[in-house]
Amino acid sequence: MSDRAEPLPDTGERMVPERTERGTFREHLTRYRFAAQFVRGKRVLDVACGEGYGAAALAAAGAAAVIGVDIAPAAVAHARRKYGVDARVGSADQLDLPAGAVDVVVSFETIEHLPD
């Protein structure tokens, strides 16, 4: 994990903590704080994990394991590098995990990016 990882560019497609307006970032954190109360000791999947700050927050909240999935390879690489997240490239509508692999699924700010 490296706090000195260069932030991702702000393309408007994902939340970038270092580049997004503070109030917007707080709104996103509030969603993850809500989810955090359900993850202690659980295996968690964060669909559309973006740059990884939320998946890392869920891990810090006591999740047994967190897998982040995002369609953008650059975001996945960033999540691994900056937060040490088990991030994987994948699509929200075609998750490649075996049945029963996770106990809790979170997905924020995702549906508007899906064509179907």
Features:
single chain, 116 residues, alpha/beta, four-stranded parallel sheet, 4 strands, globular
Uncertain stretches: none
Distance between the termini: 35 Å
- Strand ordering within the main sheet: 3-2-1-4
Secondary structural class = alpha/beta
Using the CA coordinates, give the radius of gyration: 13 Å
What's the count of strands? 4
In helices, the fraction of residues equals 25-40%
The count of helical stretches stands at 3
Give the SSE string.
HEHEHEE
Subunit organisation of the chains: single chain
Query: What is the averaged pLDDT score?
Result: 84
The percent range for strand residues is 15-25%
Shape: globular
Main beta sheet: 4 strands, parallel
Question: Mind explaining what this structure looks like?
Answer:
The chain is α/β, with parallel strands linked by helices and 116 residues long. It has 3 helices and 4 strands. It has a 4-stranded parallel sheet. Strand 2, helix 3 and strand 3 form a beta-alpha-beta unit. Helix 1 (22-36) runs parallel beside helix 2. The longest helix is centred in the first third of the chain and has 15 residues, at 22-36.
